[in-house]
C-alpha cells in the first residue's frame, strides 16, 4: 500500500502542515503587518499632512517599513522548528533539503507577503501615492517580497541556533537587502512621475530569480551547521 | 569529536537485520552524537557510514527512506493536534492515510485527545504521538534516541511489543536507553560507550 513518495508530494505535505501551523498562530504572523500599518499611519501625523510631501516620500516609507516589518517576523521561519525538532525531521525527509527549504520560503511568503500585497492599495491611499504608481508599487512588492523571504531564510538559518539571534539577524540581512530597497523605490518614484519603471523592475526580477535559485543552497549549508 | 573532546575512536558497528543495538554509557558519553552521526545529521570527524555497502550520503534518498530517526526532540508540532501530526508523519513516510488514523491513535492510547493541540498534552502523551510513527513506517532501520523517556509502564510495554514485531519482521533497531531490555536478549547487542576526557 506504500505509494512511491515523490518530491512534490513531500513538498506539498510540508507546505500544508506549515500553513496549518501558521493559521494556529495567527497573531504572531499578523504582528508585522500591524506594525507596518501603524508606522505608515504615523507618518502623515509626524511629517504633516501636506499632500505633496506625502506622495514624495510614499515609496520610500512604504518600502522601508515593509523591510523592517519583514525583519520582525522572519525569525519564526526556522526557530520553532529548531526547538521542537521538526527541523531535524525535515532534513531527514527523503527528498532534497533544498526543496524543503523552498517550501519553507513559500510558506513564509504566503503568510507575510500576501497580506501586505492585499493592504498595499490602502497604504498608497494613506500616503497619497498617485494612482498611476499603484500598479508599480504592487509589482515591486510582488517581485521584492519573495527576495525578502529567500534572503531572510539564509540569515535565519545561520542564526537559528543562537539564543538571541534577532539583532544579529537584521545586521546580517539589511545590508544585503539595500539594493532591493533602492531599486524598488526607484521604480515607484519613476512611475509616480509618469516615467517608465521598466529598468528597476527588470533588476528586481533578476534579484528574484537569483535569490530563489541560490538561497535554498545557502540555507541548506547553513542549516547543516546549525543543527550540529 | 564534540568541541575539543574526542568521544570515540576506532568505533565500528555493523547493523544487521533482526537485531537490536542498545547503546549505553554515562551522560555525555556521546550516545546521542553517535545516533545523529548514524542518521547523517552530523558528519563524523573521520570515518564513514555505509548503507548496504555504499556511503550513506551517496545513496541518501534510499537510505533516508529506509531510516526512521526519532531524536531527543520529537518533531511533534505543538500547534497541531495529535491527528494532524500523525497524518503528516504518515504522509511523509510514504504511507498516506486516506482517513484520519483513529485506529493508530487508539493503539498508542490517545483516544479522546484527537482535537487537543499537542502542546497542551503531557510530555508522555507527546512522546506517544512521536512514537506512533513506528506503526506507520516501512523503514527497516530505526534509530531511536531514548524512546522510553517520559512513557508510563503501559507505554513502555507497548513499545517493547512493537520492537519485537519489528525485529521479527527483519528490521533493525539502534537505540540509546538506560532501560533494561532483557526480554530481547536473543537479538540484543549491548554497546558500552565510555566517557572520554
**Helix- and strand-based class of chain B?**
alpha/beta
Strand content of chain B: 5-15%
Q: How would you characterize the largest beta sheet of chain B?
A: 5 strands, parallel
Percent helix of chain A: over 70%
For the largest interface in this structure, which chains are involved and how many residues does each contribute? A-B, 27 and 30 residues
The second-level CATH architecture of the largest domain in chain B is: 3-Layer(aba) Sandwich
Would you count the extended β strands of chain A for me? 0
Rounded radius of gyration of chain A (Å): 19 Å
Task: List the helices and strands of chain B in order.
Answer: EHEEHEHHHEHEE
| Mean pLDDT over the residues of chain A | 88
Instruction: Give the helix tally of chain B.
Output: 6
CATH class of the largest domain in chain B: Alpha Beta
Q: Tell me the number of strands of chain B.
A: 7
Helix content of chain B: 25-40%
| Lateral arrangement of strands in the main beta sheet of chain B | 4-5-6-1-7
Question: Which terms summarize this structure?
Answer:
heterodimer; A: 228 residues; mainly alpha; B: 197 residues; alpha/beta; Rossmann fold; 2 domains; five-stranded parallel β-sheet; 6 helices; 7 strands; 29% helix
Written account of the structure:
The complex is a heterodimer of chains A (228) and B (197). Chain A is an all-alpha fold. Chain A is built from 9 helices and no strands. Chain A has one domain. The model of chain A has no long low-confidence stretch (mean pLDDT 88). The model of chain B has no long low-confidence stretch (mean pLDDT 80). Chain B has 6 helices and 7 strands. In chain B, the strands form 2 sheets. A 5-stranded parallel beta sheet of chain B has the order 4-5-6-1-7, sandwiched between helices. Chain B is globular. Chain B has 2 domains: 124 residues, P-loop containing nucleotide triphosphate hydrolases (Rossmann fold), CATH 3.40.50; 62 residues, no CATH class. In chain B, strand 5, helix 6 and strand 6 form a beta-alpha-beta unit. At the A-B interface, helix 1 and helix 5 of A face helix 2 and helix 3 of B.
